[in-house]
Amino acid sequence: MRKYKLVKEKKVTYPLDKWHEVERRAAALSMKTGTYIRQISVNGQVINCNFKDVTAVMNALRIIRKNIN
Fold it and tell me: How far apart are CA 66 and CA 59, in angstroms?
């Protein structure tokens, strides 16, 4: 038992086909299944940002900043 923190929990049971769908969606977002379920239940949506393409833009802005100064 936690001494100072009030925590409630709920057991959720999925049919096997639904569970595979939840696992597939969590894997698509590179999240653990439990984390995905927690995020979806609290926020109603999961936002996954991919910043791999932003590196080129950030490098260009860094060069521009150096030229301005």
Answer: 11
Instruction: Enter the DSSP assignment of 53.
Output: T
pTM score: 0.55
Q: How far is CA 20 from the centre of its chain?
A: 18
Which residue pairs, CB below 8 angstroms and at least 24 apart, start in 34-38? 37/12
Residues 48, 26: contact at Cβ < 8 Å? Answer: no
Question: The tokens of 55 are what?
Answer: 């590196």
Pick the closest to residue 12 from 31, 38, 30 (CA basis): 38
- The CA distance from 13 to 5, in Å, is 26
Residues counted in the chain = 69
In percent, the amount of the chain with pLDDT more than 70 equals 91
